[in-house]
Amino acid sequence: MPSTTAAAPASPSVPTGQWFTTRDGKPWWFDSGAPSLDFAYTGDLGLGHPEWEQLHSPEDLAAWILTRFPDSDGIVHPRHLTDGIMLRDAIGRLTVRASRREAFDPRDVDAVNLFAATPDIPPALEGGSRRAGRQTTSTNQAFATLARDAVSVFSADAVGRVRECAAEDCALVYVDTSRAGTRRWCSMQRCGNRAKVRKFRAAQAG
Ligand SMILES: [Zn+2]
């Protein structure tokens, strides 16, 4: 059922979507609809899929950040990896609970709020004669931007857009950013087409 809540005001300048490998072993493009959820899907969201882990080293984190923040300074220390995984796993658990319409664990909310309270990437108007402020994005600024995205995604008026894929055998969660609020699948190419094929077969058989 389409949600009547407003679309989550996700950070429009941060691209979403990434290659993702589920249990069939084939990588496919999963656009979760929000940078913070994409970040959550570099881990297993607390669902017991250790094979989903993509951030094994500070270099892995630096590479992921660069896909979202091209101005990243690339400086990722081991403590950044620890912080990033803390933030990511908190967002992951919030994602699962939001999709199940369950109450959030206040500790996860605290973690997101902690990072969201730090300086993020400042907005800038195009067309000026010089660039104000620093030229590059630090890892901490990237975390703050992701945390603030999570704040908007999980806020009371937007959280209805966080949904589980409608396919029975798929529990992936996305943010529906479509204007009409009618997104049903993790991916049209994957679960959407499978459902269409199933419906077609049923119609042929019936
Ligand atoms: Zn799906």
Question: What does this molecule look like?
Answer:
Helices cover 40% and strands 7% of the residues. The protein has 206 residues and is mainly α. The protein has one domain: Jann2411-like domain (Jann2411-like fold, Orthogonal Bundle), CATH 1.10.3300. The strands form two sheets. Strands 1-2 form a two-stranded antiparallel sheet. The radius of gyration is 18 Å and the shape is globular.
Give the full name of the CATH homologous superfamily: Jann2411-like domain
How is the main sheet built?
Answer: 2 strands, antiparallel
Low-confidence stretches: 1-12
What is the alpha-carbon Rg in Å? 18 Å
The distinct bound ligands, ions and cofactors come out as: zinc ion
CATH domain class: Mainly Alpha
Rough outline: globular
- Give the count of helical stretches: 6
Q: Please, what is the average pLDDT?
A: 90
